[in-house]
Amino acid sequence: MARPAPDRDAAPTVQRLRLRYAKRGRLRFSSHRDFQRAFERALRRAEVPMAYSAGFNPHPKVSYANAAPTGVASEAEYVEIGVAARCDPGKVRAALDDALPPGLDVVDVVEARTPDFAQRLEASVWRVELPGVPLDEARGAVGRFLVEEEILVERLTKNGIRSFDARAAVISLDCAPGDGPDPDCAILRVVVRHGTPSVRPDDVISALRRVADLVPPKPPRVTRLAQGPLDEAGTSVADPLAPDRAG
After folding, report:
1. Same domain for 182 and 223?
2. Contact 77/67 with Cβ under 8 angstroms?
3. What pLDDT digit, counting tens, does each position of 6-17 carry?
4. What is the CATH number of the domain that holds 150?
5. Within this chain, do residues 134 and 182 fall inside the same structural domain, yes or no?
6. Dist. CA 33–CA 49, nearest whole Å
7. What is the pLDDT of residues 33-72, one digit of tens each?
8. In angstroms, rounded to a whole number, what is the distance separating the alpha carbons of residues 236 and 157?
């Protein structure tokens, strides 16, 4: 069978849009692959004029950046799309938000006016709720964590068990009382620098277990609050879309 000729008339990208979206509620259990499928369906429903790659198997021009792990909620996930006709970012945000299921919420859309967006995602701010863990116990564990220079933890990867340092990537770690009805629910706020291998909140919890024998009796609830460039103080992150708005 003869191969079809490549599509040489694919519409070029005339505008790039950067989107911030959230994973909330039960949708935190959706995988990155689940989101990809839902997002591409939403692009079609919203009739976004997508640009496509050329060749024998064209794909919509969609680029994902540093997705959160499955089971983790997030207020700061990012994706970039290329479109074949200029669009109003506010209208695209509203149309995509309507087309996605509740819990996958498009928070912001801006026109991409600067390069190297992925390099601006230097660190993440995480909120880790520890149900059943009293505040004093959590504070003691945090104190032991912070005095260590290196804490080796293990994680199962597709290539087997891997050991790495979970301490070096943690820029700051503090503890606060819970803000819900459970008095024994300490809340951690962790700022983690992105790197290779990436240090995730479950790695920090593993490190707390290692240095302080902290074992939450119930599964922790984790939310990414923000990701972006480190601020001037080096203790939190700034809005990575700010340079595009300024441009």
Report:
1. yes
2. yes
3. 444 567 899 999
4. 3.30.70
5. yes
6. 22
7. 999 999 999 999 999 999 998 878 888 999 999 999 999 9
8. 29
Q: What single letter denotes the amino acid at residue 2?
A: A
Give the Cα separation of 68 and 79 in Å (integer).
12
Decide: 24 and 106 in contact? Cβ < 8 Å: no
Give the C-alpha separation, 146 to 150, whole Å. Answer: 10
Specify the pTM: 0.90
Closest CA to 116 of 88, 80, 84, 75: 80
Please classify residue 42 by burial: count the beta carbons closer than 10 Å to its beta carbon, then call 0-12 exposed, 13-18 middle and 19+ buried. buried
Which residues make Cβ contacts (< 8 Å) with residue 73, sequence separation at least 6? 22, 23, 24, 25, 28, 221, 222, 223, 224
Q: Is residue 142 part of a domain?
A: yes
Range of the domain at 196: 121-228
C-beta of residue 89 within 8 angstroms of C-beta of residue 113:
no
Question: What separation in angstroms does the CA of 150 have from each of 5, 67, 79, 204, 232?
Answer: 56, 26, 34, 12, 25
What is the Cα–Cα distance from 78 to 178, expressed in whole angstroms? 28
Condensed to tens digits (0 to 9), the pLDDT of residues 141-183 reads 999 999 999 999 998 877 888 899 999 999 999 999 988 777 7
3-state secondary structure of 246: helix
